Amino acid sequence: MKDTNGKTSKDVLIACGEGKRNFEIVNPLDEIVKIKGKKVDIKIFEDPDGFSYLIYKNHKYQVDILEKNQNKYTIMVNGVWYYFSIETPISFKRRKYLSKSVNSSKIVKITAPMPGKILDILVEENSDVKQGEAVIILEAMKMQNEILAQISGKVKKVNIKTNDSVMKDDILIEIERS
Amino acid sequence: MKINSLLIANRGEIAIRVIQTAKLMGIETWVIKTSKEPNALYLGAADKIIDFSDHSEEIPEFLDIEKIIKAVKSNKIDAIHPGYGFLAESPVFAKRCEEEKIIFIGPSPEAILKMGNKTIAKQLAREHKVPLLEGSLGNVADASEAIKIANKIGYPVILKAASGGGGRGMRIVENEHELEKLFKMASSEAAKAFNDPSMFVEKYVRNPRHIEFQIFGDKHGNMIHLGERECSVQRKHQKLIEESPSAALDPDLREKMGKAAINIAKSVNYYSAGTVEFLLDSDKKFYFMEMNTRIQVEHPVTEKVTGLDLIELQIRVAQGEELPLKQKDVKIEGWAFEFRINAEDVQAGFSPSLGVIEKMSLPKSKNIRIDSGIQEGAVITPYYDSMIAKLIVYGESREKAIQYSAIALKKLWIKGLKTTIPFCKAVLNNSNFKKGIYDTSFLVKEMKIHYFEDKDAEMLAAYFATYDFARTLKEEEGKTVDFEKGKNMNPWILNKRLKSL
Question: In what order do the strands lie in the sheet with B368-372?
Fold first, then answer.
């Protein structure tokens, strides 16, 4: 599947995982790639049933692209998922620079982790919340789920009413970091 | 009366499970089709389908008692098997079946009513000298009464819905301060789920093991137990892995608990399959919790170690037959595990992972049984629970069963969404679980990470993402023209390329 046509210079890409877990990968389309400076031999193949596998050190790993949006990937390996954004050395530098220069936003948006119905709203606008405090009860899949505040602060906005149906990733509440 | 035709008033894997046995017994099987899953696997398994696709009532199809009764009458169907959930533990439904002379495959309406009400169930246990936990002698009127009782018996206490089950309408309270809020939540949850907001309070045993006994009765007064199941691997009272027998019981304790279970069942003249749940504390003292008056999700582990078909027994008992075996004939051999493969994201607090099952590859072996109501292409919807399949693995001993389970889980591949498979693997890798030393606090206390991760998996994932990214870039640049690849090409790129021709 890999081809090496016209490859003279080296292609470098960086897979940036969560929490600065970065993998620098040289010539990802080549037979032998370099990951974090080490040569590794990984084979990719698909079986007739439509599963994709990686073979590495004589072990077989089921692999799947769960989500893909431009350079953002969620990859599953043997059922465990990993999130990466793929950067070129230039975009990687810019990313590093940006994360240093911009203060993390003061407003944190709490979004619905799954589609469901709002059963109860436990806070109001301008009320103070503590990190880990339940702010909303969302009913989904026959269960009541507590949605917790990720940060301590003041509730700036409540975008929903009791009994509203919400979709995944809808913004429910906005909290200003204190 | 011999049953010739049977409606399974349920969906998914349990509908298929009942159909399998009914067919072996020469019974014609009927199921209900709904607009929520018009292509579900269970529809293809049945002989006949009743179409509820035009259903427009507020009440869901499988809960619409009168509509189901009417359909059964007009199609001259002899019996109804309710499966689990939905109407399985509705005394009203069982009563309506009785009135309409439809055979309900389950216990009597009276038994369902009494055991379904935890307050009555506890009174019965008390009368029959089965140990149970202290608490309110019935429902409490409000949060302030609950606080009074809690202060008397001491924290932690547990608030439970009188009609509850499956972890809904249930909250553990650590101190007086949080009782009122949690009472409100549990009660509203119960009102919604069971149409009954009444709550009771009892002492909460920290870190008990969840041990339940499968009992079986017939309409002639015979009652046996088929040993226990341990369901201590739970998250928020939702069972995730079950086994039979339990590593915590010895033959003496098994006999004692089995007798207690039988006594409770006899107190309501129980017949059909039932499950008596106990908590077992670290001193091996057991306490009656509740009785479930239905076939359980985890019944296959009992079938594996007893060699019995519980659905067949249910149907025979419903026909009025005597149980074909006595207590002394019940032999428990080997060990069985059940793993619930759910569409849940174990890396994000077990939140539901909705989506399409793109591909599924199931392990096959004589030690493995898979009960599933799902085929490739099926959509996991928010309408129903998130179960994809139950993986049941048998071994001659607990060690063997664990070993076979690990192999089976490695060969179980599901593509398209996140599942609990990595969680099951992580449990099997835990040294205390392997030794059989665990209780209901296992998930919180013993498992720092709720999923099993292969050593090089992250690096391989990084590689695969990068590979795909590089390949996509290259394709878009149009440097390669590969006609073979065209069949997998994304339409956007294909369109672009066609334009440039």
Answer: B286-292, B272-280, B209-217, B223-235, B238-244, B335-342, B387-395, B368-372
- pLDDT the model gives residue A127: 87
Q: Chain B: give the shortest CA distance to residue A28, in Å.
A: 5
Give the chain A residue nearest B449 (alpha carbons).
A80
Tell me, yes or no, if the two domains B207-333 and B334-453 fold the same way.
yes
A75–B465 CB contact, under 8 Å: yes
Which residues of chain B carry a pLDDT beneath 50? 485-486
Quick check: is B168 catalytic? Answer: no
The structure's pTM equals 0.82
What's the gap in Å between the CA of A82 and the closest CA on chain B? Answer: 7
CATH 3.30.1490.20 fits B134-203, yes or no: yes
CA distances from A25 to A36, A171, B472 (A): 6, 36, 16
Q: Which helix (H) or strand (E) holds B98?
A: helix B91-99
Residue A90 burial class via C-beta count within 10 angstroms: exposed 0-12, middle 13-18, buried 19 and up? exposed
The two three-digit tokens of residue B343, written as one number: 């569409």
Q: How far apart are CA B2 and CA B103, in angstroms?
A: 10
The token pair that represents A165 in the structure block: 């149906």
Phi and psi at residue B303, in whole multiples of 5°? -60, -40
Q: Where are the domains of chain A?
A: 12-101, 107-177
pLDDT digits (tens, 9 = 90+) for A50-106: 899 999 999 999 999 999 999 999 999 999 999 999 999 999 988 888 776 655 567
B443 backbone dihedrals φ, ψ, rounded to 5° = -60, -45
Bond preceding residue B363 cis, omega within 30 of 0: no
Kindly report the CATH number that applies to the domain delimited by B5-105: 3.40.50.20
B381 touches chain A (CB under 8 A): no
**Interchain CB distance below 8 Å, B418 and A78:** no
User: Looking at chain B, which residue has its C-alpha nearest residue A117?
Assistant: B382
Q: Return the bridge partners of A166, or none.
A: A116
What per-residue confidence (pLDDT) applies to A105?
65
Task: Supply the CATH classification number for the domain A107-177.
Answer: 2.40.50.100
A93 CA: distance to closest CA in chain B (Å): 17
Instruction: Measure the CA–CA gap between B46 and A56, rounded to whole angstroms.
Output: 45
B192 touches chain A (CB under 8 A): yes
The catalytically annotated residue of B209, B294, B316, B340 is: B294
Residues of chain A in contact with residue B188, where contact means CB-CB under 8 angstroms, are 119-120
Query: Where in chain B are the domains?
Result: 5-105, 134-203, 207-333, 334-453, 467-500
Question: What's the rounded Cα separation, in Å, for the pair A91 and B104?
Answer: 67
Q: Give me the CATH topology for the region B334-453.
A: D-amino Acid Aminotransferase; Chain A, domain 1 (3.30.470)
Pairing state of beta strands B209-217 and A153-158?
unpaired
Which chain B residue shows the shortest CA-CA distance from A1?
Answer: B485
8 Å CB contact of A77 and B189: no
Architecture category of domain B207-333 in CATH: 2-Layer Sandwich (3.30)
